[in-house]
Amino acid sequence: MARLSWAARLYVAAVLAVAAAVIAWGPFTFPWNSWRDIAILGLLLVVSESTATRLSPGNLSWSASTTATLAAAVLVGPVGAALVGAFTIFSLRRGPSPAQRAFNTGMMALTAYVSGRVFVVMHGHVGALNVNSFPGIIGPFAVAALAHVVVNYALVGGVLWLARNAEATTRTSQGGMSARLLFSDLGYGAFGLLIAALWTVVGPFAPLLVLIPLFVARWAVAQFAEQQRAYEATVGALCQAVETKDFYTRGHSDRVSRGSVMIAREIGMRGDRVEAIRYAGMLHDVGKLGVPTMVLQKTGKLTEEEYAAIQLHPMRGLDIVREIGFLDEALAGIMHHHERIDGRGYPMGLAGDEIPEFARVLAVADAFDSMTSTRSYRGARPTDEAIAELRKWAGTQFDPAFVDAFVAAIKRDGWQRPEPPVLAADELATVPAQDHDDPSAPLRVIDSL
Amino acid sequence: MTERRHELRRYPWQVRDSGQLLIVVAAGVWLVASVAQTAADGVTGPRIAIAFGALIAFGEVLRLNLPGDRESAPIGLAGALAYALLIQVGHHQAQHSAHQVVTVTAIGMIVGALPHLAVGRPARLSGMAVRLLCVACVAYIFRPLAGNAAVVRDAGLAFSLMTSLAIAALLLEAVLTALLRVDEQRARFKVALVDEMRLQLPLGAAVGASALLIAFAAEVMGLAALAVFTAPLLVTQVALRRYAGIRATYLQTVRALAKITEIGGYVEPGHSERVSRLAVAVGRELGIHEPQLLELEYAALMHDIGQLSLRDPITGGATIFVSPQDQQRIAALGADVIQQAQVLGSVAEIVRRQNEPYRDIDPATGGYLDHPDGKRDGPPLSSRIIKAANAFDDMVGSSLDPGRAAAAVHQLRLDTAREYDPEAVEALSRVVNRRSVIQM
């Protein structure tokens, strides 16, 4: 909202003017003796606004401020609520520009006024509650809360629409988000009624008591999100460590993970299973560490023992990750990602539907990344050629359904190919001459000894 | 060794968790007395008692396991405290006695523990006993006052009284839990108490506030308050459960990936796990706080991860037998790997400096090279602990022979002039001695 169009400016000015008019006209009905309550509720609003959670990239953010304005609507009436809403201007949050701040203030005051008006119109009794207020107050309050949300959305939607028309760069992807926002707004609104109810008993301590559990709840959610980020970063870093030895496979785990997630989303897997397959993709090759480097990078044909060592790597991978509390499916995926539909894969030689779903998904993404990456014995293949190759092996090596899903996902979202590796002089010695993941160049084994 | 095993067998009251026993017995005695009294007096306000009992049972069913092997039942505790602090429900004065509070709380807890028992999760008596004792203390102080005219009429007085009681109860819980942990894990009391308070502060604040909210709101809203004010705690609990889950997975993953060095043949099997267990025990002995203890554990698990970048495995993996330059290089490579994660900055630092000698010696004079301003910029304590633990494990390995362990400790002691931190070595020696006593 850095450069506002004149239309948007006009809109903000109009909102501010209406809000100011509402407050200015108010004193005729304004209960002067409730200034203390207004100050306390205003303080509550400032605290909630200042600790608002920003919704990533957009200008939207949500906070518990609805709680304060709705409590004010019940306790001190529409004009008092508008005054409480105007406290938005004191928000300590950095970030919003003066124009944004002005708009937020006007919007909150106006929203609060409308909801307060609606509450009165619905025959809600303004003032302290008592035992007899329940359950009669719930109806008017619910309508007022709904009005609050609707007006809030309409005003914000208006300014976003005008601002977006001017810039036309911000992309909207807030469908699911706004539904969640709506619920959280209504939820926070409900606590407004509770503050109003408690006001009778403990007076101004009510907001404090009500807010502590709310803030702790939000803190807990933040803790969880932070821990999850840390975990992902650590797994990613450790997987990279596993790959450092082999120059050509750098980033392989990460890409296989992404590819598997693309397939999983395409076939409509449940959210927690998508998460699991992401980690399975990252960790699918850790067992390779158990295979002697000499064997992995051998140029000539493999002896039977050496081939057996390679065939064992999914099992070793399983050994490593077995104790992690993943879904069992992820473990099964890691163990069987080299099985083939026709039953000629390893380590168990499972066929068709016997192969766990995760393993069939991983196999497709794994082979595709191998083909589209540079190998010492060939350059990276173009995406089309690799897709043709996947199609060719569908039914014998890969599950055709997952190949189709992967191709559809790539056609739609594209595929980020790895950068061709630039070899440092001293790394030439460790270049592997074959890749066990590459379906078009199967490992060569000495037939008899 | 078999003869000595007999001498070391202890009687139940001599076991190291005698504190646990004491708290459980105290709570049990109190409970029996309360039940008897309640039975004699009859139940006052049965509808309210059932509602709160149900809330406590519900909270106990949703018991939560927090990181660091902590058990917590926020909703149950909030419900019980609210029942103890209740003044009025609607128009009716709440007149139940303290005995009844203890009885209802205990019954709720036991009912809530049944589903856990049914699926084979044994009840942790000490945790329940601690919660019951806290509730009992509040109830016995507040119940006689609840009927007092001054308290009923003056909201400010009631509020401050109830707030201070709730805070006191939660402090008591922290103190008792810390005492139990001192017993269980041989932590220092002060360290355990600070850790307990720091970790439980947010949750405790939410529990205390919810308890007060329920108690006050019951006056206006009646029993609906129970359901309404449990909601934020429920959200908190769901988030914390997922948090604890991901933290456990995190540790398991680091443990699992640390094993890569073993499977790759770089390190003796079980080395990282043993070093981390020893290092954490030593760290606890030295009074390291829990957050740093976790970092120490991560660092110890991953201290050899740098070997993955080596072209050829070190024979047997024992890093103390490699030249100091190579040791430094492995440590630096490992730290680089960890640095990649961007979230484990101090862990990377610990791993990077794990091989630095405790003190620098001036090669010319043979004297110590201390930092000019007196503050020596030595390696962090965690690095010094890992250095000692790693060297110990390289010498002893998975052997359980106390003689071998003693010889290794002796060897470390001889090097305390320069290589190893004498404090860390002494703490390690205490840990190792204790362990060999337990193993025999």
Describe this structure in words.
The complex is a heterodimer of chains A (449) and B (440). Chain A has 449 residues and is an all-alpha fold. Chain A is built from 16 helices and 2 strands. Chain A has a two-stranded antiparallel sheet. In chain A, strand 1 (53-54) and strand 2 (61-62) form a beta hairpin. In chain A, helix 4 packs antiparallel against helix 5 (138-167), helix 8 packs across helix 14 (357-372) and helix 13 crosses helix 14. Chain B has 440 residues and is mostly helical. Chain B contains 19 helices and 4 strands. In chain B, helix 2 packs across helix 5 (98-118) and helix 13 (271-285) crosses helix 17. Chain B is elongated and about 85 Å long. Chains A and B meet through helix 6, helix 7 and helix 12 of A and helix 8, helix 9, helix 11 and helix 15 of B.
Structure, briefly:
The complex is a heterodimer of chains A (about 450) and B (about 450). Chain A is an all-alpha fold. In chain A, about 60% of the residues lie in helices and about 0% in strands.
Shape of chain A: elongated
Report how far apart the termini of chain A are: 74 Å
The CATH C-level class name of the largest domain in chain A: Mainly Alpha
Gyration radius over CA of chain B? 27 Å
Please, what is the average pLDDT of chain B?
Answer: 85
